[in-house]
Every structure is written in structure tokens, then in C-alpha cells.
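Late entry, written up from scratch paper. The run itself happened at the end of the previous shift, but nothing got recorded in the book at the time, so transcribing now.
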Amino acid sequence: MNEGKETQKRSLRHMLLTALGTVLCVILIPILVLNVSLIVKSYLHEGEVPNVGGVFPLIVLTDSMYPEIQSGDLIFCRTADPDQIQVGDVIAFFDPAGSGTSIVTHSVAEVREKDSQIEWITRGIANNADDPMPVPEANLVGMYRRRVPGLGNAVMFMQTTAGLIVCVVCPILLLVGWDVMRRRRYERRKQADTDALMRELQELRAQKEKQSEDGTNVP
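Output as recorded:
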């Protein structure tokens, strides 16, 4: 009775650990593949925002687009042709008033044409005024599509040493440790079964020898 309960407990633990390992793999592997792809593309195409299939993630650092987009969100944008951009669209662009590397995501308040080139007047919907400089089409990075609330904070944490340890190194070590423990338990159970079988064979052999000595036959 107790042996049956113990077997059920081991089976339940095995199922739970297997499910946990599967969930971690499903979460971590796509993240790692995506990060590697973005890193490789950032080296191959310097000065461009790396993307996968035209889609790229950005972490929001300010509340200039509150409440539609909030600080700490992870947003996804898609590369777009300048001719597609209309008033009311939310675009990501290299800030013309910045260093040339900072990216801003604001709403288009006006579409203009200057020297046969398109430019946009943009504004953060939480701000009281338009951005100080028009955005030329050469600065366009892409068009905003959707957001995942709060995930940007988690991504920023994962980029720190502590986050790398907690979110990547520890889960991998746990998976490896669990696999080692599982293999060892399997080997112990296999050895125990083998030992039990050998003991049973020895008992049968001893019983047969004893019966032979007594002059009886063993079927």
C-alpha cells in the first residue's frame, strides 16, 4: 500500500518537473533565438534597428504617450514605407533633436512635404505641444503595432548581470540538475530491480538445491 503511494508521488513529481522543464524551454528558447538574431543583425547592419521579419521590439522609457503607451512597456513596431504614414499613426523614429541614436515613438500630428521629401510633425499624446523638430522620412524606423504592458521592465532586468543569472543561468542549471537527478533515480531504480531479481533467482536456486537434497522434485 505504502509502496503504491510512494510510486504515485514519484510519478507526480516527475510529471510536475517535466512540465516545468517544458515551460522553461518554451519560454527561454524563443527569447534566446530572438536575442541572438537581433545581436547578429545589429553587427551586420550598423546604424539600423535590427528586426526579425520586419518586426522589432522597443522598450518604452517615458510616459509621453500615456495612456496608450506607458513607461516600462515593450512595444512591437513594423518597418513601413514613408508613403504609408498618415495623421494619427504612431511611428518610431530617430529623434532629429537627439544624438542620432535615440528612438522616439510618437503620434503623427501632420504630414508635410519639403524638397520632394516627406516629413512629419509629431507629438506625444501626453504632451501639450508638438515635438520641436519635424521628422524627415530618412529618420523613420517603423510604425507602432502593439504593446505588452510592463514587459519592457522585465527585458531590461534580463539585460543586467543579475537578470541574466536569474532568468537564464539559474533555469539552465535547474534543468541540467533535474536531468542529472532524474537519470540517477532511474539508474537506482533499475539497479534495485536488478538486485531484487538476482535475489529472487538466488532464493529459487537455493530452494531447488535444498529440495534436490531432500529427494523432492521442483516443477
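The radius of gyration is 32 Å.
(Scratch paper discarded after transcription.)
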